[in-house]
Design goal:
alpha/beta; Aspartate Aminotransferase, domain 1; Aspartate Aminotransferase, domain 2; 2 domains; three-stranded antiparallel beta sheet; 13 helices
Length: 377
């Protein structure tokens, strides 16, 4: 059987043993409804609240400011539609960066259809937001600004603290949100210290299970909920909590070691970049100071989908653009000013703590084979 070399961890990660065991325990032993008032319900609720404390601690915020969601997409939709509705009387301008995840980008597009003044802050060639351009977009009608912490395609890190300060200085009544799904448990996140009013994180990017996420909501932020019909989570996100997934989320975060893991990933990244740089026709699209977990490259002369499936024949799994984009052309790379040929031949390599140099060696072998047999000369 062919060995698997999974290098698509920005799409999803393997569930760690601690999270899997916790989920199984919650499903088979501690399976009460956490809203029930009897002993079994209380035991389940204790697990949910323990996970809430863990997530809050990882962000250096109060547990009361954390609500659980089904993941990053729900969290981002809650922010954009919730803020737009809650703050409509103050203004109608919503600003996002031109390289946001589809769950922000498409939500903003829908709000534009509904009559909101949606503006897109441009980025430079390194994928980082143009601060001066953003400043020029801020007006007294601005109600929400959303800029992701780490780009899901390139790993570009945005200066979130600087952006938050600018937004609050120019628009004191506006809310600032950051989608930190790709940054969570990979770099220190301090939304309260940075001045972020809202922050989205997700479980399945950090070795938790799919279907769980969390949203930090500061005391200042008032957003309208998307869902109605229950008292759970102070009505901010009603409905029976998925206690198995939430508890598993907490277990995954509890065992995360940002410093140790990031140091290891940085070593893998350095090794990978050195090998990739030796390949003919391969260009690295990620900035040099990107989060080391992500490397975006172009293999010019070979379309993304073609090289992706060629690598799969070697047991190597990567992605083209964002997994949520289902293979559509990357508007992120286009916004960075890359040529059409670079965009159309791009793939994303993304690491986790379970990867080794063997995975990179297999990647390089697959790319070498693809360049020999598939590249248009």
């Amino acid at each position: 059987m062919m060995e698997t070399h999974y290098l698509d961890n920005s799409a999803t990660t393997a569930v760690c043993k601690a999270a899997a065991e916790k989920a199984l325990y919650m499903m088979t032993e501690n399976y009460g409804n956490p809203s029930s008032l009897h002993k079994m319900g209380i035991r389940a609720e204790e697990e949910v609240e323990n996970a809430r404390e863990i997530i809050a601690g990882s962000l250096s915020v109060d547990a009361k400011d954390i609500i659980f969601t089904s993941g990053g997409t729900e969290g981002n939709n809650t922010v954009l539609f919730g803020a737009a509705q809650a703050l409509r009387r103050r203004g109608d301008r919503i600003i996002i960066s031109a390289v946001e995840h589809p769950s922000v980008y498409e939500s903003a597009g829908r709000l534009k259809e509904l009559g909101y003044d949606v503006q897109y802050a441009p980025v430079s060639t390194d994928g980082k937001i143009d601060i001066e351009a953003l400043k020029n977009l801020l007006t007294d009608k601005t109600i929400l600004v959303s800029v992701m912490t780490v780009n899901n395609e390139t790993g570009a890190i945005q200066p979130i603290e600087r952006i938050a300060k600018l937004v609050h200085k120019c628009c004191p009544e506006a809310l600032f949100h950051t989608d930190a799904v790709q940054a969570y448990c990979k770099m220190p996140l301090k939304p309260k210290k940075w001045g972020a009013d809202l922050m989205t994180v997700s479980a399945h990017k950090v070795h938790g299970a799919k279907g769980s996420g969390a949203l930090y909501i500061s005391d200042k932020a008032r957003i309208t909920p998307l869902l109605y019909g229950g008292e759970q989570q102070h009505k901010r996100r009603p409905g029976t909590e998925s206690s198995p997934l939430i508890a598993a989320f907490g277990a995954a975060v509890a065992e995360a070691d940002i410093t140790k893991t990031t140091e290891y990933i940085r070593e893998l990244n350095t090794y990978a970049v050195s090998k990739l740089s030796e390949l003919d026709g391969v260009s690295i699209n990620s900035p040099t100071d990107a989060l080391p977990y992500i490397i975006n490259i172009s293999v010019e002369g070979i379309r993304s989908e073609t090289i992706l499936h060629h690598l799969e024949s070697f047991g190597v799994y990567v992605s083209s653009s964002s997994a949520c984009a289902k293979g559509k052309r990357s508007y992120v790379l286009a916004a960075m000013g890359l040529t059409d040929s670079r965009v159309d031949s791009s793939i994303r390599i993304s690491f986790s703590k379970y990867n080794t140099r063997d995975d990179i060696d297999a990647l390089i072998s697959g790319l070498e084979s693809g360049i020999r047999s598939l590249q248009r000369r």
